[in-house]
Design brief:
The two termini are about 35 Å apart. The radius of gyration is 31 Å and the shape is elongated. The protein is mainly alpha-helical. The strands form two sheets. The protein has a two-stranded antiparallel ribbon. Strands 3-4 form a two-stranded antiparallel ribbon. It has 20 helices and four strands. Helix 11 runs parallel beside helix 13 and helix 12 runs antiparallel to helix 13. Bound molecules: arginine. Arginine binds near residues 91, 121 and 327.
Length: about 475
C-alpha cells in the first residue's frame, strides 16, 4: 500500500496537490474551531457506538476515549497548541483526527468508520445552536428582571402615552416598561422553538444515504442529549432550518432591542428629558464639552442591521440549493456565530443601561397631566349621561377648539363657554379628572390601571419562572 502524501482526510484519488490559494480559501478551521467541544462530544458518542458493532474492541474504545479526553483538555488549556497544530488543519474534524493519530497512531484513523463530515458538522452545529439559545435565554431573563425592577421602582409614575408620536392618553411608566418586556418574552418562545428545531441528531445519516454498520442511532442521540434522531438521512445533511430559526429569533430580539433603544434615545433628548442617561453607559463629545450621548442605545439600534443581515445571508445561501449536502453549507456558520455574539452583547448592555437609567418622574408626570390628554375621558363624561359616543366625541372636540381659540387648557374655560356647546356639561365637568383617575379607570386586564399593572407584574414573574430551554450535551 502506497503511503499517503499528507495527513488530509481525503486525497487517495488525487494526482496533484490543491492550488495553494484555493486550499486556503476552502479551509474552515479558523471559524469552525469554535465547535471543538461539540466535535469531541460527537466523537466520544460515535466511538461508544462503534464498540457494540465490533469496529472497536473494548481496549480500543478505552484508548480512543482517553485520547479524546486528553485532546479536549488540551484544547481548553493550551491555546498556543490549538493555534500551531490547527495551522495545518482543514477543518474542526481534521483537527481532532490529526490529534487522535498523534496520540494513538493508526488507531486514530478508525474513528471515522461509517461516518461523514456532512453529518458530523450538522450535529456539531445543532448542539451549538441549542447551547447558544439557552445562553441567550439567560440574557433575556436578566433583561426581563431589569424591566421588572424598574417597573416596580416606578410603579405609579404617570407618563404621556403616545400614538403616532403624538400625546394620546396618560399611562403608567411601569405599563410602558412592561410593554417592552412582553416583546422579549415572545423572543424566549422563539428561542425555545429554535432549540427544539435543532434538537434532533443526524449521526448515522452518513454522507447522505445512511449507515451500513447497523449503528445505534438512538443511543448516540441520547448520549449527546438530543431527544430524537433526524427522520431522513438526505434531509439531515441538507437541513439548516434550525440555524434559520435561531437567526430569526436573534433578528426578533435585535428588532425589539432597536425599538427599546429608539425610545430611550428620544426620551434622553432635551425636548423630552424623561430620562437621565447613566454616565456608565454614555459617552461624551471630543468637541462639545456639554454633550452626554446615548451611545449604548445607538449602537444597539445600529447593530440590528447586521443581525437581520445574517438571517438574510443564510436564507440566500440556502435558496435553490440542491437537496443533500453541498459545500455552500459551510457558509452557515460565520454569520450565525457573529450574530449570536453581537446579540448577546446587545442584550447585556441593554440590561445594564436600563438598570442604571434614572427616570425623571416630575417631567413624566407634568407631560401626563396636560388636560388635553383627558379628552377621551371628557367624552366619556357625556357617555355616562346617555350621549352616544360619536356625538360626545364631536362635542368635546368643540370644547377643545374653543380652548385653543382662547389659548388656555379646556379645564379653564367658563361654564358658560361649555354650556353653549352642550347644556349637559355641568360644573364638575370643568374640574376635570385627575391623571390618577384617568389611569385608574383602565382597570381591564392588560390595561394601565395600577391594579392591572401589579397583576401584570405578578403574571410576568410567574411566566418567567416556568420557561425552560433544553441544552445540548457539553463535553
Ligand atoms: N467544513 C464543512 C462545513 O462546514 C464540513 C465538511 C464538509 N464535507 C465535505 N465533504 N467537504 O460544512
Amino acid at each position: 500500500m502506497a503511503e499517503r502524501k499528507d495527513d488530509r482526510l481525503w486525497g487517495g484519488r488525487f494526482e496533484r496537490e490543491p492550488n495553494a490559494q484555493f486550499d486556503a480559501f476552502q479551509r474552515s478551521f479558523a471559524f469552525d474551531r469554535r465547535l471543538l467541544p461539540y466535535e469531541i462530544a460527537v466523537d466520544r458518542a460515535w466511538a461508544k457506538a462503534l464498540e457494540p458493532i465490533r469496529i472497536f474492541t473494548a481496549t480500543e474504545l478505552k484508548q480512543t476515549l482517553a485520547a479524546l479526553d486528553k485532546i479536549a483538555e488540551r484544547t481548553k488549556t493550551d491555546s498556543a497548541w490549538v493555534e500551531s497544530f490547527g495551522a495545518s488543519a482543514e477543518d474542526v474534524h481534521h483537527f481532532v483526527e490529526k490529534a487522535l493519530v498523534e496520540e494513538l497512531g493508526p488507531l486514530g484513523w478508525k474513528l471515522h468508520t461509517g461516518r461523514s463530515r456532512n453529518e458530523v458538522i450538522a450535529t456539531d452545529f445543532r448542539l451549538f445552536v441549542m447551547d447558544a439559545a439557552a445562553e441567550m435565554r439567560r440574557g433575556l431573563e436578566a433583561l426581563l428582571n431589569a424591566f421588572l425592577l424598574q417597573a416596580k421602582a416606578n410603579i405609579s409614575v404617570p407618563m404621556a402615552g403616545m400614538t403616532h408620536m403624538q400625546h394620546a392618553q396618560p399611562i403608567l411608566l411601569s405599563h410602558f416598561l412592561l410593554a417592552h418586556a412582553e416583546a422579549f418574552t415572545r423572543d424566549i418562545t422563539r428561542l425555545q422553538h429554535a432549540s427544539a428545531s435543532a434538537d434532533a441528531c443526524p449521526m448515522g445519516s452518513g454522507a447522505l444515504a445512511g449507515n451500513s454498520f447497523a449503528i445505534d442511532r438512538n443511543a448516540i442521540a441520547r448520549e449527546l442529549g438530543f431527544s430524537r434522531i433526524t427522520a431522513n438521512s438526505l434531509d439531515a445533511v441538507s437541513d439548516r432550518d434550525f440555524a434559520l430559526d435561531y437567526l430569526f429569533a436573534l433578528a426578533g430580539i435585535a428588532t425589539h432591542l432597536s425599538r427599546l433603544a429608539e425610545d430611550f434615545v428620544v426620551f434622553a433628548s432635551q425636548e423630552f428629558s424623561y430620562v437621565t442617561l447613566p454616565d456608565e453607559f454614555s459617552t461624551g463629545s471630543s468637541l462639545m464639552p456639554q454633550k452626554k450621548n446615548p451611545d449604548a442605545w445607538e449602537l444597539i439600534r445600529g447593530k440590528t442591521g447586521r443581525i437581520t443581515g445574517a438571517l438574510l445571508s443564510l436564507l440566500t445561501t440556502l435558496k435553490g440549493l440542491p437537496t443533500s449536502y453541498q459545500r455552500d453549507l459551510q457558509e452557515d456558520k460565520e454569520a450565525l456565530f457573529g450574530a449570536h455574539d453581537q446579540v448577546e452583547g446587545m442584550v447585556w448592555i441593554a440590561m445594564g443601561a436600563l438598570t442604571a437609567t434614572k427616570f425623571n418622574a416630575d417631567r413624566l408626570r407634568a407631560a401626563a397631566s396636560n388636560p388635553v390628554l383627558f379628552a377621551t375621558d371628557a367624552a366619556d363624561y357625556l357617555v355616562h349621561k346617555g350621549v352616544p359616543f360619536r356625538k360626545a366625541h364631536d362635542l368635546v372636540g368643540q370644547v377643545l377648539r374653543e380652548a385653543e381659540r382662547q389659548g388656555k387648557p379646556w379645564t379653564q374655560l367658563s361654564l358658560e363657554d361649555v354650556q353653549k356647546i352642550s347644556p349637559l356639561f355641568e360644573k364638575d365637568f370643568l374640574d376635570g379628572p385627575s391623571v390618577e383617575d384617568v389611569i385608574a379607570n383602565k382597570i381591564v386586564p392588560g390595561g394601565t390601571a395600577p391594579e392591572s399593572v401589579r397583576a401584570a407584574i405578578a403574571d410576568l414573574e410567574a411566566r418567567l419562572s416556568k420557561k425552560t430551554t433544553k441544552t445540548g450535551a457539553k463535553p
